[in-house]
User: Fold these one by one.
Assistant:
Number 1:
Amino acid sequence: VQLMESGGGVVQPGRFMRLSCAASGFSFSGSAMHWVRQVPGKGLEWMAFILHDGETRYYAESVKGRFAISRDNSRNTLYLQMSSLRTEDTALYYCAKDRGGGSLDFWGQGTLVTVSS
Amino acid sequence: SFVLTQPPSVSLAPGETATISCGGNDLKNMFVHWYQQRPGQAPVLLISSDIDRPSGIPERFSGSKSDDAATLTISRVEAGDEADYYCQVWATTSGHGVFGGGTKLTVL
């Protein structure tokens, strides 16, 4: 199983950014997926969830209405579209596979997003 | 919003047994999962659904739950167990994942 995030970098407040997570080594189209973020030196914060078929999506209150999770099962890729970015969105963003029951059994290495003017 | 409470830190000597608690309202009706995160690395799932240890996780790691308190137990602690440990639940009714604040384990 491999999950590889990309798309991070430095972005100005108020702008948008799209993160990608390339998946391999498992049935991506049969797996629910999550995004989790971590401010450097701080704890883990769950961000978003998408069911295997993309029909069901959930978001943390802190990003609802600004972030959108999506997936392309034909490309084995998970996305996180982030808009109206704020300085407090600065964090390492991980994608993770759902094992079932809401546990996350495989994680990528993360991509760093820095929101700064 | 739902909150999971963990002690900020635990310190003990090699060979001792570490217990890390995780408390939350109505935890008895949720599955609790545990993760280990070593410095500079991604989290690793240690325990799923209260007590289930995924393949490859040493038997020294075990989980339990009683009422609204879950516990991660690490037997015969080693220097390599120094890490941050997080509990997590999936709140089915609201469709939200929640992590505890994390516990830093220090092996003296």
Note: The two ends of chain A are 37 Å apart (CA to CA).
Number 2:
Amino acid sequence: AQSVTQPDIHITVSEGASLELRCNYSYGATPYLFWYVQSPGQGLQLLLKYFSGDTLVQGIKGFEAEFKRSQSSFNLRKPSVHWSDAAEYFCAVGQSLGGGADGLTFGKGTHLIIQP
Amino acid sequence: GAVVSQHPSRVICKSGTSVKIECRSLDFQATTMFWYRQFPKKSLMLMATSNEGSKATYEQGVEKDKFLINHASLTLSTLTVTSAHPEDSSFYICSGWGGETQYFGPGTRLLVL
């Protein structure tokens, strides 16, 4: 069975500083990997996704993520965070692009706190 | 991006009653919709997958007689929590498959007293 681990329950970063959120997955085949952000009262918003090709993926809001097969990781990064980035971040794995007909398996999330 | 709405956004009900939650894809047709449940400080857990016009497929451990799912059209799926109990209190989120990715609704907070 597939699984996703986000080791950090919460992370505090100063505004303007760089950010890296960790994600490790367990999946037998080639994974489809996603990062979502959840803000209070908002639905989950897709930041970026990886399914093949270049292992460094660019997303919205200045985020990027790098797929490392040898480490089973898909860490999310941003060079300079803004106060508006404070939210809950979820890494997810699917059996097909976009989840398809199979649904997604989510990590437990990382709560990002931005210090002024 | 595509928009998915949920109604109601929050609901409080008495133990033993049934509650219906609607999930609508507003600007796209979703042949497949998913229902997730999110516990506090926990990840989203897939409950079931529903395909328009057919019976939903439930994940292991999810009671299909308690969580009734109907996907009658390409833009509407409903989740009915039957004979709700306090342990059913949770945040329920739906998503629609839009051809390239899943688009998520804002969620419904259910509190069973």
Note: Chain A touches chain B at residues 4, 9, 34, 36, 41-46, 49, 90, 97-109 (CB under 8 Å).
Number 3:
Amino acid sequence: NAGVTQTPKFQVLKTGQSMTLQCAQDMNHEYMSWYRQDPGMGLRLIHYSVGAGITDQGEVPNGYNVSRSTTEDFPLRLLSAAPSQTSVYFCASSYPGLAGTSNEQFFGPGTRLTVL
Amino acid sequence: AQKVTQAQTEISVVEKEDVTLDCVYETRDTTYYLFWYKQPPSGELVFLIRRNSFDEQNEISGRYSWNFQKSTSSFNFTITASQVVDSAVYFCALRETSGSRLTFGEGTQLTVNP
């Protein structure tokens, strides 16, 4: 299994440009999430999905869109990049677990995004 | 709303010292899950442990141990006889059963000096 893969690893954008960060997992996980990591702020949830066709907002969703057309893929779209979106982005996936349980989230290697 | 606080931003120790990383959480759920992740300088996030709220038994794994106390809403992590390879950012996280969100603390940068 490749686990959770993210592309690209690094990206530089100009203000106003749009792009899509790709995330894929081959573990048949139902839950997938996107986080951003900024210095001194830990990881903050952007959007998440509990299954194909279902998405919801996290803590910091503004400026980002997601869709979940398949179980495997969960792309994150930046509509109009801003310098405030300079960050490291992590995608994660997990099984929902049996009732009353929660499984660990598996994280991708991250995408380092710089917006000039 | 759930919240995780890691009050120690940075800790620096000398190799072989014991070190404890603090984690305090807030939640309204009676059932929840706590996690610790390690982020070494290479940047990936490594899962260390998961603990259910109804299981307050402390856990030991090699040089790592975790002390979960519901009475004080704390889930502290101790590294015994620290090594240089333990240098990393450590994150504590909380997941409520009422949702699928994982809330992270701000992280503690641990530096172990030779």
Note: Chain B is about 0% helix and 55% strand.
